Amino acid sequence: MADPSSYRPRPGQIPDSPGVYKFRDEHHRVIYVGKAKSLRQRLASYFQDVAGLHPRTATMVTTAASVEWTVVATEVEALQLEYSWIKEYDPRFNVKYRDDKSYPSLAVTLNEQYPRVQVMRGPKKKGVRYFGPYGHAWAIRETVDLMLRVFPVRTCSAGVFKRSAQIGRPCLLGYIGKCSAPCVGRVTPEEHRELAEDFCDFMAGRTGTYLSRLEAEMGEAAEEMEYEKAARLRDDIGALRRAMEKSAVVLADATDADLIAVAEDELEAAVQIFHVRGGRVRGQRGWVTDKVEAVDTAGLVEHALQQLYGEEQGEAVPKEVLVPALPEDAPAVAEWLGARRGSLVSLRIPQRGDKKALMETVHRNALQSLALHKTKRAGDLTTRSRALEEIAGALELDGAPLRIECFDISHLQGDDVVASMVVFEDGLPRKSEYRRFEIKGFEGQDDVRSMHEVISRRFRRYLREKLRTGEWSPADAAEAAAGADAATGADGGQADGQVGGEVAAEADDGRPRRFAYPPQLVVVDGGQPQVAAAQRALAELGIDDVAVCGLAKRLEEVWLPGESDPVVLPRTSEGLYLLQRVRDEAHRFAIQYQRSKRAKRLKAGPLDDVPGLGESRRLALIKHFGSVKKLRQATIDQICEVPGIGRKTAETVAVALAQAAPAAPAVNTATGEIIEDEAPASAGASSERGSEQ
User: Does the pTM of the predicted model rise above 0.85?
Assistant: First the structure.
């Protein structure tokens, strides 16, 4: 725990102007980002007596080891820079909203030659018009089904569209009149785009004009005794009215607004947003956050506005935003919203009338969302805090293990040995920092030796980073490296890394690499032998401030180094539940990597070229005989004994293997290395596993 006075800037050093500031911890990781009208006044508030600070603020300033700032010209620039840095650094002590689910939207791909109407989730793409989000995907499909009668826009995938164009026949929707069939030239690209734009206008709330036009056309058709046309227009009007009825009218026509409500307690807050377009509720979404910083309702609203509109442009930002409390810098926030929309945006608190009544409805939804979230065990901050405290008490740690790393070994009867490292911070998975390892240098089912190697490699990277940043002396580094190399040999195996790259590569901006962050607790999947191996690896590197424990699957016992008896946590313990989650996640991640390596290796086998032999029967042959070499030596009658293999297939396999040159070894497509002909006897069977005691 650092003393804030140890890194307090000198008097007069901080400018009295708008800006954004960052607090960093001892590992140079950004833990908090904030903005201020006056950097001098705001930062001075952090360096008063710690006892007088809010508990969360006190925790942040005592965790930090340095502070830095950037001066900007206006408060709007400060708001934008703060949002960018929070998104880039993901600071631990900043409020971070997390969606309580993934919301679908109705999307129209206006960036294509023939725009398509579809359901979309995830990040928004440039050139695509979005409506929603909606609570359920089926609600979007029902609405689209009604509107395709009037706006027969393409809804098919690129593959279906291309296929119909090749064969010269439209799909079923084209035959029943729910698609204008641009794939076969029934309409020109310009006519189809006009249909898509009319669809967008109607969904955007401009319904009155379009319905009036259809009603006028229906009257003209009836007067001219074109009764079939009039009947079709009548049915179109009915379909559009039914689609409109699915969105309740809540405000006056042409009202364009988002309503944001907040429900909070001492630990958490829930945010609900209603999107009103054309006076109708077009979408709803919600977020939940842990209040990891000292923030009031106004601050929560400001963070919600940043997350909601940080990536939006144009009409996605409404004319009016109604909130329960105005942010501290309300004029600057309104100006920032206006810049994103391209016109003036009203940011205010509703005082009376329909808008205030609707705001009360949104607030009730927020209260319900918070109550529902409280029932979710893994997302409950109180539960996670209790779990970390129970782990600290059971393992006799000095403090709660805020960062836990778990390691697991996975192999297939000693072949394709891999390891995983998963990271949990504050009781939640940090998937961006997961790592995986390939174990080489020895053969066999030696989980203990594999665990020793993985722990050594992970913490050797940590010590190298300490040496790079000057936190460690070269003499200490040389001594630890010599001890580790003497015990384990060279740093064997494929590069430790995440998917798609070598993590040891130097960061361009000089920031610490993620292996530089040490855990407070290392958990290994296994019992006493694995724990002893992990502890020995740390001791050889001279690391004595990282706790180690193991979780054995058989009885869910917690093992500590040097102890002959395990620590038994109650089955109802939140601490045991968290350790199980960490262990199971490491096991899943290791198995996933091991399976991917095995699949790549099997694809290079000589059985791939046998006509009519699929993957299932190929794996059945390998499982039955144990290797391709033994299969090559088998008779046709012996091959026929494999379930699913007939005599004709057996003869084909025998001929193909006889013609294949045994001297031409298979090649691992992932690493380029030669694979021995002896494949594991249980390839493709259910014997894949992690280390287990």
Answer: no
